[in-house]
Amino acid sequence: MNFVTTSFVLFFLPVLCIGWLLRSRPAVYKHFLIAASLFFYGNLGTEYLILLLSVAFLNWGSAALLGKVSHGFARKLIVASDVSIHVLILAFFKYAESFFLWFNDCLSLNSPLRHWLLESGAGDILLPAGLSFYTFQGLSYVIDHFRNSDRPARSFADVLAYIAFFPTIMAGPIMREQDFFPQLEGQPNDQRGFNEGMALILSGLFKKVALATYLSEHMVDPFFRDPESYASGAALVGIYAYSIQIFLDFSGYSDLAIGIGRLMGFRLPQNFDSPYRSLNLQDFWHRWHISLSRWLRDYLYIPLGGNRRGNRYVNLTVTMVIGGIWHGNSINFLIWGFFHGIGLVIVHAFGQLKKKLRFSTTSHHNRFLSVLSWLLTFHFVTLLWVFFRAKDLDEAQNVLKAVVSSHDGTPIPAMAVLIILLGLFMQWIGPACFRAFTMIQSRLPWPLQAIIVGLLGGVILSIGPEGVLPFIYFNF
């Protein structure tokens, strides 16, 4: 169920009203939240709901076993089994279709098995929506219980509420146990949370409906379909357009998810912090998809050895390669993850070199270096988004070739250029605008607040297209 649809509004309004009435009764509220979340996810299909319940049961059972076992080897076996099953589930749904295609190609044209596989549709496996995100939450729950045997065991209802929480199940932010359960116990509804929630929802709608969808329909999709028809300058604008689109799309989704959570009485972790202001790649990953970056750091990079064991540069590269592969089975994602890993290695190595040389500069040089660092970081990230967006390596190469072409081509929509510039300016002015809006709203009477929110929401929806595209990260 897409957040930007009438069906979601019809679902959410009664859930919000009933939830506010039940908030002071934690036990009842928890079960109501579970029912709402299962209804929300169950709309995608019964088979998806069965998978969700299975993952929740697996994690609840693994953590319960860890609470009863003290022997070191047995505890490692339990957590290794839990992790292995999750990896197999993800691998099956993400890569089985590619395996079937490869296997079919290996068979002779007249093979009965080949004909049976093609006719049966055995390789037509759809990735369940949100699978990557709720499996990551489940894994963090079990691994944290493995690392800290003193953590109290939770009931199956608690674990299900945590994993199935409808504002985050589709594409995060990825929560940790300590983010969620204290808030599930019941907190009073507060006006500030409501104001922030409404402001975040308006922000998410504006980014997705008014800006990201326009870039997708009028610049990004046409350009990636036929990059050869664009001159070099227009091709570069097309690459910039996707860089801004994916920020607007995913941060817009995160704003909506966090805003909906705030209205439900939950403070969800921040997922974006003006990432295109970053002066180096390490800073970028501290600001982009923050909940996933922290998850990869805590549950992959550190267990690999982090900065303490082995080669930190190898650990960084392996972590980013796995992060790339997590996004999909295309070689493009492998390239994207590998070069982000190499970029992080260079940033870390340069930082170590500066410390050894005790490198220092004047304030004038610092400003120049800051601008240069920003330009290098932004363009490095932006060019790598080409591999993320392109459907295969050939398309990525055609897009990059178009940048150095010299012929005339399709004109650039002026509105696309304005949105690209606005998307960049939002990195600096966005947080201040959000704080100013919530401060002004909080000082107004409730009826006037409702009128302002309604008018702004109506304006945003009216300037958007007839149908809003699905969020990009629903594909992962």
In words, what does this structure look like?
74% of the residues lie in helices and 0% in strands. The protein is an all-alpha fold. It is globular, with a radius of gyration of 24 Å.
What's the layout of helices and strands?
Blueprint lengths: L5 H17 L3 H17 L3 H23 L3 H35 L5 H9 L10 H17 L8 H9 L12 H8 L6 H35 L6 H32 L17 H7 L2 H15 L7 H16 L3 H27 L5 H27 L3 H11 L10 H29 L3 H18 L13
Helix pairs in contact: 1-2, 2-7, 3-4, 3-6, 3-7, 4-6, 6-7, 9-10, 9-17, 9-18, 10-15, 10-16, 10-17, 12-13, 13-14, 14-15, 15-16
From the structure above, extract its key features.
mainly alpha, globular, 476 residues, single chain
How is this structure best summarized?
The chain has 476 residues and is an all-alpha fold. It is built from 18 helices and no strands.
Largest sheet: none
Number of helices: 18
Q: Whole-Å distance between the termini? A: 15 Å
* Percentage of residues in DSSP E strands: under 5%
Task: Give the proportion of residues in helices.
Answer: over 70%
Average pLDDT rating: 89
Instruction: Give the strand tally.
Output: 0
Low-confidence stretches: none
- Structural category is mainly alpha
* Outline type: globular
Element-by-element helix/strand order = HHHHHHHHHHHHHHHHHH
> Quaternary status of these chains?
single chain
Radius of gyration: 24 Å
